[in-house]
Amino acid sequence: MKISGKVALVTGGASGIGKAVSLKLLENGAKKFVAILDLDAESGQKAVSEFSEKFGADRVKYIKCDVTQENQLKGKFNYTWRK
């Protein structure tokens, strides 16, 4: 899968499997940025700090989102798409 120069949106990306996926995307060249969507703001900010240190602050963003709410998820997707 070619991810170079792409934006990746990872739901549940602040911890567990989602965080591991976010890390792999960054390691494998998601050059634009990885958006971590998660309801837990504290974990989200912690993941961003950790990844920013290694990959640069411009490569990872935290977006608070309850992915069980379809309208919220669509809104955050559209927001990320415009970036």
The largest sheet is: 3 strands, parallel
Large-scale geometry: globular
Distance between the termini: 22 Å
Helix content: 40-55%
Kindly summarize this structure in a few lines.
The protein has 83 residues and is an alpha/beta fold.
Give an overview in words.
It is an enzyme of class 1 (oxidoreductase). Belongs to the short-chain dehydrogenases/reductases (SDR) family. Its EC number is 1.1.1.141, 1.1.1.232. This protein is of the alpha/beta class. It has helices at residues 16-27, 41-55, 70-82; strands at 7-11, 33-38, 60-64. A three-stranded parallel sheet has the order 1-2-3, sandwiched between helices. It is globular, with a radius of gyration of 12 Å. It starts with 6 loop residues before the first strand and ends with a helix.
Characteristics:
single chain, 83 residues, alpha/beta, three-stranded parallel sheet, 3 helices, 48% helix
Give the SSE map.
Layout: E1 7-11, H1 16-27, E2 33-38, H2 41-55, E3 60-64, H3 70-82
Parallel strand pairs: 1-2, 2-3
